[in-house]
């Protein structure tokens, strides 16, 4: 099992502050998807970055790149086309 990260790149600056109603609906489904990944033990951490560029970050585990890509592409933020997903293999350093 490897750690992966996908970055969610927004379509414009100040994205969180300027969400349309349809984008809010997508992000409701995105939040539910993230909660399901967390419950399944797949998701390690996720959240947005703040400032003008609201890039989202999702760190999770998957067996291989195909499985990781499937996780990213199933995220409603990506599958809807609202945000662009950027998948990368990641090394996670764990403390304690």
Automatic annotation (TrEMBL):
It comes from the Bacteria. This is YCII-related domain-containing protein. Pfam families: YCII. Belongs to the YciI family. Residues 7-83 form the YCII-related domain. SUPFAM superfamilies: Dimeric alpha+beta barrel. InterPro entries: Dimeric_a/b-barrel, YCII.
């Amino acid at each position: 099992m490897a750690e992966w990260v996908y970055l969610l790149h927004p379509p414009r600056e100040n994205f969180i502050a300027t969400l349309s109603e349809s984008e809010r609906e997508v992000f409701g489904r995105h939040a539910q998807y993230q909660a399901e990944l967390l419950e399944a033990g797949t998701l390690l951490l996720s959240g947005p970055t703040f400032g003008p560029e609201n890039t989202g970050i999702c760190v999770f585990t998957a067996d291989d790149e195909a499985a990781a890509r499937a996780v990213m592409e199933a995220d409603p933020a990506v599958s809807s086309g609202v945000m662009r997903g950027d998948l990368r293999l990641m090394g996670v350093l764990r403390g304690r």
